[in-house]
Structure to design on (115 residues):
C-alpha cells in the first residue's frame, strides 16, 4: 500500500509580521531586564513585579493568546506614557528616557508593519 505524505494544514496566526514580532520580543526582554536591574540596584520589588506583569501581557499578545493584536498597541502606549511621566519627573535619560524611546519605536514598528 502506498502512503502519501500528507502535510498538516498550515495554520496562519494573524498576530503581527516578523519584524514586528522580533521588535516586540526584544522589548519584552528589555522590559524584564529593566525590572531585574531595578531590583538589584535600587531594591525595587515593584519595578520587578510591574515589568514582569507588562512583559507577560505583551508576551501573551505576541503569542496570539490575547486577541485582538491592537491590545499590544494600547499596552505599549500606556507604558510610553508611564515612562514619559517618569522621564519628565527625573529628567534622567536612564532608564525612563531609554524605555520611552524603545516604547515609541516598537509601537511605531508594529503600526507601520500592519499598514
Amino acid at each position: 500500500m502506498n502512503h502519501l505524505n500528507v502535510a498538516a494544514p498550515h495554520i496562519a496566526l494573524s498576530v503581527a509580521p516578523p519584524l514586528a514580532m522580533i521588535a516586540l520580543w526584544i522589548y519584552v526582554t528589555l522590559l524584564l531586564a529593566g525590572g531585574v536591574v531595578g531590583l538589584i540596584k535600587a531594591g525595587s520589588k515593584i519595578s520587578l513585579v510591574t515589568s514582569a506583569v507588562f512583559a507577560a501581557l505583551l508576551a501573551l499578545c505576541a503569542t496570539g493568546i490575547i486577541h485582538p493584536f491592537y491590545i499590544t498597541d494600547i499596552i505599549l502606549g500606556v507604558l510610553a506614557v508611564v515612562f514619559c511621566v517618569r522621564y519628565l519627573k527625573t529628567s534622567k535619560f536612564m532608564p525612563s528616557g531609554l524605555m520611552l524611546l524603545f516604547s515609541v519605536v516598537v509601537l511605531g514598528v508594529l503600526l507601520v508593519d500592519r499598514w
Residues 2 and 8 are 18 Å apart (CA to CA). The chain has one domain: 18-114. The chain has a mean pLDDT of 88. The two ends are 50 Å apart (CA to CA).
